[in-house]
Write a structure and sequence with these properties.
The protein is an all-alpha fold and about 300 residues long. It has two domains: about 140 residues, no CATH class; about 110 residues, Up-down Bundle (Receptor-associated Protein). It is built from twelve helices and no strands. Helix 1 crosses helix 3 and helix 3 packs across helix 5. The longest helix is centred in the middle third of the chain and has 45 residues. It is flat, with a radius of gyration of 27 Å. The two termini are about 50 Å apart.
């Protein structure tokens, strides 16, 4: 049984490799995806720099044509929010992300067939397919959490720059532009730049800031935006509001650092226990074996 699966997997892998190698040499079109102009430019850069990404885009385009988007609208809406929150890695559209999950399941199926044939254990096939299908979700979640941690790390400094600019007499848009010019490259600077571009294109300032909070999806940022919206509605100055929010964000950052420092000893117990056991066997293992061979015990 497994020999048939193994041969079928090898044949499928060989045919697929030859097919996509040939297709990878053909011209590619990128206008079929529904992405903003910035992500289209990033996609074109990746296509020119990576042949593997070029082949993936073509294959994802074929698979996307078979995906019933009308039946998966809610699922794709959730995936779109997660991709935006993660910084749109690899300039993926929601149908392409789902195609990536399908490709992962197919690749894992071939691997599972090989492992099942070598180890004569059929459970490897099911486990491999499930892992291949859900691994892109794990990868996307890791990307999103890393980006959010970096945003929280950059937020107090960049908010201080914005506060100084506003308190110096600049309006919010000019202060935001000055802050973007002075801040270093990073995801928070990119988000503020996108917000500034939306404001320059005519979108309401508060709506642009709410869009920023929706894209990032961090409670501290949402609290900041809510305070700015409330200050705008009540007619109070933005400078004092920004100063208070900056101090609060810095205090929360110190509290998170203290919490991580307090958790470090607990997390080190099991690695240190394993290390101590290994050191013990290295130091006294030969002595114990010699004692058993000498008949002492």
């Amino acid at each position: 049984m497994f020999s048939g699966f193994f041969l079928a997997g090898i044949a499928l892998l060989s045919f697929g490799s030859l097919f996509f190698l040939v297709r990878g040499l053909w011209p590619i079109r990128v206008e079929a995806v529904k992405l903003p102009g910035v992500l289209i430019s990033e996609r074109e850069r990746l296509i020119g720099a990576s042949p593997a990404y070029r082949i993936f885009v073509q294959l994802a385009g074929y698979l996307s044509g078979w995906i019933p988007e009308s039946r998966l609208q809610n699922y794709f809406a959730g995936i779109r929010k997660k991709l935006i929150s993660a910084g749109s890695p690899l300039a993926l559209a929601p149908p392409e992300f789902f195609a990536l999950k399908v490709l992962g399941a197919l690749a894992a199926l071939i691997l599972g067939l090989c492992l099942g044939y070598l180890l004569s254990v059929g459970i490897w096939i099911i486990a491999a397919v499930l892992f291949g299908f859900f691994y892109p979700d794990i990868w996307l979640r890791d990307k999103r959490l890393k980006r959010q941690r970096r945003i929280l790390k950059e937020m107090p400094y960049q908010l201080d720059l914005l506060t100084l600019a506003v308190e110096a007499g600049l309006d919010f848009s000019s202060g935001l532009e000055r802050m973007i010019a002075k801040a270093g490259p990073g995801p928070l600077r990119d988000e503020f730049f996108l917000t500034l571009q939306e404001m320059k294109m005519g979108r309401n300032r508060m709506d642009s800031l709410k869009g920023l909070a929706e894209r990032i999806k961090i409670p501290d940022i949402s609290t900041l935006i809510s305070a700015l919206v409330q200050a705008e509605e009540m007619g109070s100055g933005l400078g004092p509001t920004l100063r208070i929010q900056s101090d609060q964000l810095r205090n929360k950052r110190f509290q998170r650092a203290e919490k991580l420092a307090m958790e470090a000893p607990v997390k080190m117990i099991f690695p240190l226990l394993f290390i101590f056991v290994c050191v013990f066997f290295m130091l006294f293992g030969s002595v114990i074996l010699s004692a058993f061979k000498g008949g002492i015990f």
